[in-house]
Amino acid sequence: MAVVMYLYNETGSTTLSTTATLISIASRMVSGMFLPAISDRFKLSTLLMLSQLTQLVFLSGLIILIHQRLSVFILVLLFVFMSFISFFNGFFSPIKSSIVRAIVSERDRVRANSFISSVDQTFLFAGWTFGGLLLSILGKAATLGIAFFLILLSVGSLCMVKVSEISNIESKEGLISRLTAGWKYLFQHQGLRIMIAMDLIEAFVGTIWIGAVTLTYVKEALGKSETWWGYINGAYYLGTIIGGLMVYRLSKMMRGRLAIFMIFGSMMFGLLTFIYGFVSNPYLALFLVLLMGPSYQIRDLAQETMYQNSASEKILTKILSAKNALVQLMIIFSIIGIGVLTDLIGVRLVYILSGCLLMFSALFGFVHLYVRKKGLYLESESA
Length: 383
Known about the structure:
By secondary structure, this protein is an all-alpha fold. It is built from 15 helices and no strands. Helices cover 81% and strands 0% of the residues. Helix 2 packs across helix 8 (175-188), helix 6 packs antiparallel against helix 7 (140-158) and helix 12 (258-276) runs antiparallel to helix 15. The chain has one domain: Growth Hormone, Chain: A, CATH 1.20.1250.20. The chain crosses the membrane at residues 15-35, 47-66, 72-92, 113-135, 141-161, 194-216, 228-248, 260-278, 323-342, 348-371. One of its GO terms (cellular component) is plasma membrane.
């Protein structure tokens, strides 16, 4: 938000602000492709620490840059620093998931994932809700200073995480084998093939919730101002916090039934999105978005646990890196595609069609994971 605000204030260009987002997504995609090459050579906790410390270095550079008058050189340097921050940030999610698998027993994994997700969503809610307020009151440098302090806190927290793992520095695997191991596993495993197909459909549809599309919906479909744009975003993140707490309470019930819970969450999310496309009442729209949060969390947390059950920590890091790279690539295409579709057919129809695609994804998962029993391979480690 701070970088986008700086670029917009200096240039007034929406294109440059959008470029910053695309650079961030593309860097995370490259990160997902690169991580398997080094994940066998270092301990996962060491890699995670390295990624956080490197982000601190480049974030310090970013704080210095936004005090300079914008020039071509400063702009290029800004994008380079942003790409490095995003690249190393891309390590975080797959490694974090692998470490959770390593330190939490299978029976407690759903609860652990839901608790961590509730914390994640709380900070996302606070960030998106109060980020703009912080920028207007404190300014860009102070806000980035807070981000710097939070990453420093993250590094301190990582020092207290004890993971029993052995580094495979003597691994004889070649570079190509290390890079492709996760991709092979992802497409050869019966259950994971279905989940990645669902993920790609949902990633393409997911950009209907990016700023430009939601703002268009608020103005054209609901007839409200930018204030309601903030309400819609806030309601969604509040719903995800509630959803994380719900999953925490339902964790025992979900054990051994992860596939059906994931499909149920996907179907509900699709149905609510479909209905959302027809709504004109802003309060009803707000209520539907609030309900989407728990639906998405049930789907997401069940899926996260199924991925963790599919392989050991080292292989899991490679699988999740490959998955993240594919998802980020789909998001890049989606940002362009959804924007064009919104202009061509209107924002309401975009949400209605997205709801249909999400429900199709859930039905596809139901047939393959539940009816054809391919989800059984992901319900537990032993399976």
